[in-house]
């Protein structure tokens, strides 16, 4: 029987925590295809208005090992810049992963910027092993947050 495993990752950013959280979580389905078109081909809301229970779908380019991912927002506290979501379709579900959740929290840093804390928890299907996938996942997460950071810095007056 496969056990539940997890990985964590932290990314420092000069962007303010609330702006980074809003762009990376609340508005990500509209920003992703613009900011990382080499990874995300398209994205859209499937159901809901962005609150708890909402489902979003991301369609990926050939840069990713899977073509789509649907996630459901399980917890959201925009004031504390924190959310949790569950992978419900694609992204390796039923081919290698039984379940997967992610927890994102963006905290203020002492220098006025922020620290993004990501925790991914997953349960693999029996017989499935992960090797380089965790390193690759952390690389994708870093690339995504750095793209958002660059966008926010280039557009300081943009309200997100």
Describe the structure.
- The protein is α+β, with helices and mostly antiparallel strands and 160 residues long.
- The chain has one domain (2-154): START domain (Alpha-D-Glucose-1,6-Bisphosphate, Chain A, domain 4, 2-Layer Sandwich), CATH 3.30.530.
- Helices cover 25% and strands 41% of the residues.
- The chain is built from 3 helices and 7 strands; from the N terminus they run E-H-H-E-E-E-E-E-E-H.
- It has helices at 17-26, 28-35, 133-154, and strands at residues 4-13, 40-47, 55-60, 68-77, 82-90, 97-108, 114-124.
- The chain has a 7-stranded antiparallel sheet with strand order 1-7-6-5-4-3-2.
- Helix 1 (17-26) packs across helix 3 (133-154).
- It is globular and about 50 Å long.
- 23% of the residues are buried.
- What is the CATH class name? Alpha Beta
CATH architecture: 2-Layer Sandwich
Morphology:
globular
Percentage of residues in strands: 35-45%
N/C terminus separation? 44 Å
Order of helices and strands: EHHEEEEEEH
Biggest beta sheet summary: 7 strands, antiparallel
Overall residue-averaged pLDDT value: 91
Give the strand order of the largest sheet, numbering strands 1, 2, ... along the chain: 1-7-6-5-4-3-2
pLDDT under 50 segments (min length 5)? none
Full CATH superfamily name: START domain
Structural class: alpha+beta
Radius of gyration: 15 Å
Number of strands: 7
